[in-house]
Amino acid sequence: MQELETFKLIERISSLLRSEERKKYAAIGLQPVHGQVLEYLGKCNKYSDTHAAVAEYLGLTKGTVSQTIQILERKHYLEKNTSSLDGRVVHLSLTESGQKLIDELKPLDVFKNAEAKVSAHEFDSIGQALQTTLMVLQKVNQSKSFGLCRSCSFFSVEENHYLCGLTQQALDRDDTEKICREHTPAPNSFIDQE
């Protein structure tokens, strides 16, 4: 059961980071896949800077990679160079503006801020560390927490029944184990510190 909770936390953190990534790339007219291709090309060696290698590394189709590379080339973020050893091989390389773009957009500022807040603390379990990381990321990103009802600051037990302090409505036991859009994390001195 703990493994499933850990997986869910990792999945939620990943979703939050992907959402932030999509916003940043959309602001400059790109998709996250474009950034992934640029990042890969910024790290790979001369044997791995081809269309086929990009497709294999990112798990994309050749068509998707081809379209992505065309867009990035039109925007002057990468360039193609035919191999001097084999004219059938095309090598891809970042332009100066392509390198500048990945330097500006990665790592995500939201993750750097959260990492700085979390790294100074010791945790009893990976689940506790991930939960805290998620909550800090949500706060830094100003996004809703969508947490479990029973972990909300509005959750209470009144006269042997569960109550939502926000709506002033009684809750079934099943409700307390479900995700709520109105979730507000319970006060936590670590997370609330600026």
Automatic annotation (TrEMBL):
One of its GO terms (biological process) is response to stress. One of its GO terms (molecular function) is DNA-binding transcription factor activity. InterPro entries: HTH_MarR-typ, MarR/SlyA-like, WH-like_DNA-bd_sf, WH_DNA-bd_sf. It comes from the Bacteria. PROSITE patterns: HTH_MARR_2. Residues 3-142 form the HTH marR-type domain. It holds the Pfam family MarR_2. This is Winged helix-turn-helix transcriptional regulator. It comes from Methylomonas paludis.
